[in-house]
Every structure is written in structure tokens, then in C-alpha cells.
Amino acid sequence: MDRRGGAAAVALALTSAFATACSGPPASSAPVAAAEAFYAAVAAGDGEAACALLLPDAAEAAADDADAPCAEALTSGRAGDELASRAGGRGDPTVHVAGRQAQVLLASDTVFLARSGDGWVVTAAGCDAVPDRPYDCEVAA
């Protein structure tokens, strides 16, 4: 199984957990802010800032998949183009928080995050739901 397949399986498991989790404004604002900051960096072409918002394993996977540094992987090539196309569609986000995991639904993307220290990091972005399968994500740990 490739990295995207493993991450997608995790994303599916997290989605199931989120379906039964409660989320309220205090718990949900930080993951939304992190997801929006990630896409703001992508939209600005600031790959370094976008990579800094990723889980280190996701940053490494993005770099490996593109055979380029993370910052370049998120701002150019197939993954960069896909992320850039989603960057403008943030809309009114919906968030589901389950313990140390979160799922943020933006107008044009589903972003998965994990609590890290005092903040949140993106574990998967550029994700599309696939019927009866895990999410398919452009960037994933």
C-alpha cells in the first residue's frame, strides 16, 4: 500500500470517529484557523509557511511524492496546482473535533488535522471523498 492509501485509510477511520463526536466553538476555532492558514499560505505561494503547518510526516511525504522540497511540492507541479485550485474556496467551514483529531470541511476541500503541542497541524489536505472508500488526498502523512 502506498503512503496515500495508508493515509486515506486513517482518514476514513477518523471520519467515522468524527461522525459521532461533538464540536463546539471553543474546540473548533483552532483547527479551522490552522486549515485556513495552510490555504492562505498556498494561495500566497508561500510553500515554506504551508509546509510549516503540516505534520512533519506529511511534509516529508509531499516532498517524496514530488521528488522536490516540500515548499516546492506544495506550490508547483500536480499537487501544487490542485492545492492552489482549492485555496480560494474556503467558504463557511464546518469542523468536527474528536479528541486530538479534527476534520475541517471547506467549500473546496476536506482537511484533516491533529493536535500538536498547543496548536494544530495539517495531516492531510486536498482530500476528496470516495464512495465506500477512504478519502483520496493530495497531501497526506
Description:
- With 141 residues, this protein is an alpha+beta fold.
- It has one domain.
- 49% of the residues lie in helices and 28% in strands.
- The chain contains 6 helices and 5 strands.
- It has helices at 3-20, 25-43, 47-52, 56-66, 70-73, 77-87, and strands at 94-98, 101-106, 109-116, 119-130, 133-140.
- It has a 5-stranded antiparallel beta sheet.
- A hairpin with a 2-residue loop joins β4 (119-130) and β5.
- The longest helix has 19 residues, at 25-43.
- The relative contact order is 0.22.
What's this model, at a glance?
With 141 residues, the protein is of the alpha+beta class. The protein has helices spanning 3-20, 25-43, 47-52, 56-66, 70-73, 77-87; strands at residues 94-98, 101-106, 109-116, 119-130, 133-140.
Summary keywords:
141 residues; 6 helices; single chain
